[in-house]
Automatic annotation (TrEMBL):
Pfam families: P_C10. Keywords: Cytoplasm. Its main location: cytoplasm. It comes from Gouania willdenowi. Belongs to the UPF0456 family. The keyword tRNA processing does not apply. The keyword Iron does not apply. GO terms for cellular component: cytoplasm. The lineage of its organism: Eukaryota, Metazoa, Chordata, Craniata, Vertebrata. This is Protein C10. It is found in: Cytoplasm. One of its GO terms (biological process) is post-embryonic development.
Length: 122
Protein backbone atom coordinates (compact mmCIF):
# COMPACT_ATOMS: atom_id res chain seq x y z
CA UNK A 1 0.00 0.00 0.00
CA UNK A 2 1.34 3.45 -0.92
CA UNK A 3 1.98 5.92 1.86
CA UNK A 4 -0.70 8.52 2.34
CA UNK A 5 0.13 12.15 1.56
CA UNK A 6 0.75 14.44 4.52
CA UNK A 7 -2.57 14.95 6.22
CA UNK A 8 -4.05 18.40 6.25
CA UNK A 9 -4.75 19.66 9.75
CA UNK A 10 -8.41 19.54 10.62
CA UNK A 11 -9.71 22.20 12.93
CA UNK A 12 -13.11 22.50 14.52
CA UNK A 13 -15.16 25.67 14.10
CA UNK A 14 -14.02 26.81 17.54
CA UNK A 15 -10.35 26.13 16.78
CA UNK A 16 -10.67 27.93 13.45
CA UNK A 17 -12.08 30.99 15.27
CA UNK A 18 -9.07 30.98 17.61
CA UNK A 19 -6.51 30.63 14.81
CA UNK A 20 -8.24 33.26 12.66
CA UNK A 21 -8.30 35.63 15.62
CA UNK A 22 -4.57 35.06 16.19
CA UNK A 23 -3.83 35.67 12.50
CA UNK A 24 -5.73 38.98 12.61
CA UNK A 25 -3.92 39.97 15.81
CA UNK A 26 -0.57 39.15 14.17
CA UNK A 27 -1.17 41.94 11.67
CA UNK A 28 -1.45 44.39 14.61
CA UNK A 29 1.98 43.54 16.01
CA UNK A 30 4.03 46.72 15.41
CA UNK A 31 6.77 44.92 13.46
CA UNK A 32 4.23 43.22 11.17
CA UNK A 33 2.14 46.38 10.76
CA UNK A 34 5.30 48.24 9.71
CA UNK A 35 6.21 45.50 7.21
CA UNK A 36 2.72 45.61 5.70
CA UNK A 37 2.70 49.43 5.55
CA UNK A 38 6.09 49.46 3.83
CA UNK A 39 4.92 46.89 1.28
CA UNK A 40 1.68 48.82 0.64
CA UNK A 41 3.55 52.10 0.17
CA UNK A 42 5.93 50.42 -2.28
CA UNK A 43 2.98 48.98 -4.19
CA UNK A 44 1.31 52.40 -4.60
CA UNK A 45 -2.18 50.83 -4.77
CA UNK A 46 -1.22 49.05 -8.03
CA UNK A 47 -2.87 45.62 -7.93
CA UNK A 48 0.00 43.93 -9.77
CA UNK A 49 2.53 45.37 -7.32
CA UNK A 50 0.23 44.46 -4.42
CA UNK A 51 0.46 40.83 -5.50
CA UNK A 52 4.25 41.05 -5.82
CA UNK A 53 4.98 43.02 -2.64
CA UNK A 54 2.11 42.84 -0.15
CA UNK A 55 0.92 39.28 -0.64
CA UNK A 56 4.28 37.65 0.23
CA UNK A 57 4.54 39.70 3.45
CA UNK A 58 0.95 38.86 4.39
CA UNK A 59 1.61 35.18 3.67
CA UNK A 60 4.69 35.18 5.92
CA UNK A 61 2.76 36.77 8.77
CA UNK A 62 -0.02 34.18 8.46
CA UNK A 63 2.48 31.31 8.22
CA UNK A 64 4.07 32.31 11.51
CA UNK A 65 0.70 31.82 13.25
CA UNK A 66 -0.75 28.80 11.49
CA UNK A 67 2.40 26.65 11.62
CA UNK A 68 1.72 26.19 15.35
CA UNK A 69 -1.54 24.46 14.37
CA UNK A 70 0.01 21.90 12.02
CA UNK A 71 -0.14 23.77 8.71
CA UNK A 72 3.09 23.60 6.73
CA UNK A 73 5.33 26.64 6.69
CA UNK A 74 4.96 27.14 2.95
CA UNK A 75 2.43 29.08 0.92
CA UNK A 76 0.47 25.84 0.63
CA UNK A 77 -0.30 25.93 4.36
CA UNK A 78 -1.85 29.39 4.03
CA UNK A 79 -3.96 28.19 1.09
CA UNK A 80 -5.19 25.16 3.04
CA UNK A 81 -6.05 27.38 6.00
CA UNK A 82 -7.89 29.79 3.67
CA UNK A 83 -9.92 26.88 2.26
CA UNK A 84 -10.80 25.73 5.77
CA UNK A 85 -11.93 29.25 6.70
CA UNK A 86 -13.96 29.49 3.49
CA UNK A 87 -15.67 26.20 4.31
CA UNK A 88 -16.68 27.44 7.79
CA UNK A 89 -17.73 30.93 6.64
CA UNK A 90 -21.14 29.64 5.58
CA UNK A 91 -21.66 27.81 8.88
CA UNK A 92 -20.42 30.41 11.35
CA UNK A 93 -21.16 34.16 11.24
CA UNK A 94 -18.22 34.94 13.55
CA UNK A 95 -15.77 33.22 11.19
CA UNK A 96 -17.40 35.01 8.24
CA UNK A 97 -16.93 38.38 9.98
CA UNK A 98 -13.31 37.63 10.91
CA UNK A 99 -12.60 36.43 7.36
CA UNK A 100 -13.95 39.72 5.99
CA UNK A 101 -11.77 41.63 8.45
CA UNK A 102 -8.70 39.66 7.34
CA UNK A 103 -9.47 40.32 3.67
CA UNK A 104 -9.78 44.04 4.44
CA UNK A 105 -6.30 43.92 6.02
CA UNK A 106 -4.86 42.27 2.92
CA UNK A 107 -6.57 44.08 0.08
CA UNK A 108 -6.52 47.79 -0.61
CA UNK A 109 -9.83 49.61 -0.77
CA UNK A 110 -10.99 49.57 -4.36
CA UNK A 111 -11.84 52.91 -5.84
CA UNK A 112 -14.69 52.36 -8.25
CA UNK A 113 -16.56 55.01 -10.15
CA UNK A 114 -19.99 55.85 -8.78
CA UNK A 115 -22.95 53.94 -10.20
CA UNK A 116 -25.88 55.74 -11.71
CA UNK A 117 -24.55 58.08 -14.35
CA UNK A 118 -22.95 60.59 -12.01
CA UNK A 119 -19.90 60.92 -14.26
CA UNK A 120 -19.92 64.49 -15.58
CA UNK A 121 -20.69 64.90 -19.26
CA UNK A 122 -17.96 66.38 -21.43
Amino acid sequence: MASAPAQQPTLTVEQTRVVLSEVIQAFSVPENAARMEEARESACNDMGKMLQLVLPVATQIQQEVIKAYGFNNEGEGVLKFARLVKMYETQDPEIAAMSSKLKALLLPPLSTPPIGGTIPAS
